[in-house]
Amino acid sequence: MKSVLEQETEVWIPAGHIRLEGNLDVPENARGIVLFAHGSGSRRHSPRNQFVASILRSGGLGTLLMDLLSEDEEAIDLQTTRLRFDITLLAERVLQAMDWLQKTPATSELKIVLFGSSTGAGAALVAAAERPEWVKAVVSRGGRPDLAGASLREVRAPTLLIVGGNDSTVIELNREAMDQMSAETRLEIIPRATHLFEEPGALEEVSHLARDWFQTHLNSATDKHERSWQ
């Protein structure tokens, strides 16, 4: 029987020659674990990420919020903005975090879903393409799925793209990405919301859409697994 972490626990995730900081929280009877992949200078302590994570946990989902860059890398990125667009590096970090989840007693039995924002959404989709048997669903919040490039054609996980109605450039980039995907994909546009969903109620709507998407597809994955054994 897996362990349960009912309170947020600080964890360290091996990533090559460094370790990345994360916060893990697994509610009792969780059926899945949400791995957050954020980019563009956002970190695990971001109020937006923390808010979304709290809504997901209230829906019975575990969460792993982690920094995809080390403190030293973050300092470099603040000066150059280069690493936040290094999708190959960010995707590798997501894959290393997925490996860690599979080896950790508290999460080893949980199905993995990915929540990506900004450039982290591109990295999440690359990782989903690399591990189609592991990733059961993906949600992108104000993301850049287009940065996943050719990997978009290889994604098998159902993918929900959420964009603010006033974020016209990103809407178009998301539509272009959808055209390249064969997996189940849906675009949700939040009226009058901007890129960071700072308008009243906007981030709450994002959180509820993400929660419902994950729950639906985790249940679907469970049903398929159970039928295969009948």
From the coordinates shown, what is the CATH architecture?
3-Layer(aba) Sandwich
Distance between the termini: 23 Å
Question: What class would the helix/strand composition place it in?
Answer: alpha/beta
Overall 3D form: globular
Largest sheet composition: 8 strands, mixed
Strand order of the largest sheet: 1-2-4-3-5-6-7-8
**Helix residue percentage:** 25-40%
- What CATH first level would be assigned? Alpha Beta
How many helical elements?
A: 6
Number of discrete domains: 1
Number of strands: 8
CATH topology call: Rossmann fold
Please tell me the overall pLDDT: 91
Low-confidence stretches: 225-230
Order of SSEs, N→C?
EEEHEHHEHEEHEH
Task: Report what the structure shows.
The protein has about 230 residues and is an alpha/beta fold. The protein has one domain: Rossmann fold (3-Layer(aba) Sandwich), CATH 3.40.50. Helices cover about 40% and strands about 25% of the residues. It contains 6 helices and 8 strands; from the N terminus they run βββαβααβαββαβα. The protein has an 8-stranded mixed sheet with strand order 1-2-4-3-5-6-7-8, sandwiched between helices. Helix 1 crosses helix 6 and helix 3 packs across helix 4. The C terminus is likely disordered.
